[in-house]
Amino acid sequence: MARSIVILMCCLIWVTPCGALTAIKSVSVWPSKDTNSIVFETNELPKYKVYTLEKPNRIVIDFEACELKTKIDKVPLDGMPVSNIRTGIHGNKQLRIVLDVLKKIDPKVSLLARTPTRGPRLVIELPATTLSNKPKKSAAQQKFLVAIDAGHGGDDPGAIGPRGTREKDVVLGVAKYLKDMVNQQPGMQAILIRDRDVYIGLRERMRRARKQHAHLFISIHADAYKNKTADGASVFVLSSKRASSEAARWLAASENRADLVGGLSLDDKGDVLASVLLDLSKTASAKASLTAAQDILHSLGQTTTLHKKSVESAGFMVLRAPDMPAVLVETGFISNPKTEQRLRDKKYQQKIAAAIMQGVKKYYQRRTH
Questions:
Q1: Considering 7, 171, 323, 342, which has the largest number of Cβ atoms within 10 A of its Cβ?
Q2: How many domains does the chain have?
Q3: 283 falls in which pLDDT band (50, 70, 90)?
Q4: For the domain that residue 209 is a member of, what is the CATH number?
């Protein structure tokens, strides 16, 4: 029997420079309540066509005069009706990407124009599977989820101390100790953003925490400065200026409007109402972030030296989700030889983790009483 081919979208034609190849810069997933989308970000508007094939079921995306500039085998497929993603070269410089799907699907295909912060994006929207089919937990069953983000990783070592100690190793050790401590607490559960020596993009770290609906995001780092006498731990929250500009960016991006404020969709809200809802969420998250940061800083001050006695603010990318309380902990200056020696010590890493845990417990108690 001949294979059944359904043409979903004809090739769209744009003029590209002679001989130039369109580059796919990144491949990511946009999760929402009922759908998950695979997003191909390119450097310019691509020529493409999308169609489906049966026996076995698959979705084929053919990009004309295009090259893949990112790894595609690491795209998370949880909650998607996709079992595998494959790539190959078809014809003359035609990049083919095949999505092996679990059943026959007619995907929704759309092309998003360039924005000030993102390139053009081809969006393949698919129905959610396990994510939307999971039964909702009752209030009594829900746990306080703490997303723990060990900074840097993989090709990015972070700061390096005088003896060669790498920030990425130290903070992963602290993060793992903290994870174990959180999981020992009744009503709490930890989510490790990275559990091994791999690099994860900054926005991807946020996305993973939001996908799990984390109640608190903690990014762990080790500071560095040219003056080797600089010392002490610090706790940061997102600066109000960065929070406002980032909220505007999130509101403008269609992928965020689908599932932004605590799971509430802004898709069907007018711009004014959506802006008000987002502003309320941003304000609540900022207040919660500051409270958590103050509790953690106070606890750290009882365990180790503080660089400053008050919570600081900065524009760290990983703190910019407007609907999730988030703090960044600098465990100490790895550039200071004495601090570096302490940070290399597993017992000291455990001590720092315990101090952060005490702050998290205090913040959790404030929420539940």
A1: 171
A2: 2
A3: low
A4: 3.40.630.40
Residues 329 and 231 both lie in one domain: yes
* Residue 245: pLDDT over 80: no
Of 141-145, 181-185, 214-218, 222-226, which range is least confident? 141-145
Mean pLDDT of 285-312: 93
Task: Tell me, yes or no, whether 139 lies in a domain.
Answer: no
Three-point CA angle 317, 218, 332, nearest 5°:
90
Are both 335 and 223 inside the same structural domain? yes
**Alpha-carbon distance 68 to 260, whole Å?**
30
- The residue to which tokens 């502003």 are assigned: 279
Token pair, residue 94, equals 């035609």
- Give a three-class secondary structure readout of the chain: CCCCEEEEECCCCCCCCCCCCEEEEEEEEEECCCEEEEEEEECCCCEEEEEEECCCCEEEEEEECEEECCCCCCCCCCCCCEEEEEEEEECCCEEEEEEEECCCCCCEEEEECCCCCCCCEEEEEEECCHHHHCCCCCCCCCCEEEEEEECCECCECCCECCCCCEHHHHHHHHHHHHHHHHHCCCCEEEEECCCCCCCCCHHHHHHHHHHCCCCEEEEEEEECCCCCCCCCEEEEEECHHHHHHHHHHHHHCHHHHCCCECCECCCCCCHHHHHHHHHHHHHHHHHHHHHHHHHHHHHHHCCCCECCCCCEEECCHHHCCCCCCEEEEEEEECCCHHHHHHHHCHHHHHHHHHHHHHHHHHHHHHHHC
Q: In this structure, is residue 296 part of a structural domain?
A: yes
For the ranges 38-42, 299-303, 307-311, the maximum mean pLDDT occurs at 299-303
Same domain for 49 and 164, yes or no, is no
In a domain? residue 137: no
Instruction: Decide if 135 is inside a domain.
Output: no
Higher pLDDT, 242 or 8: 242
Main-chain phi, psi angles of 73, to 5 degrees:
-75, -10
Last residue of a domain, one of 130, 160, 189: 130
Q: What is the CATH number of the domain that holds 54?
A: 2.60.40.3500
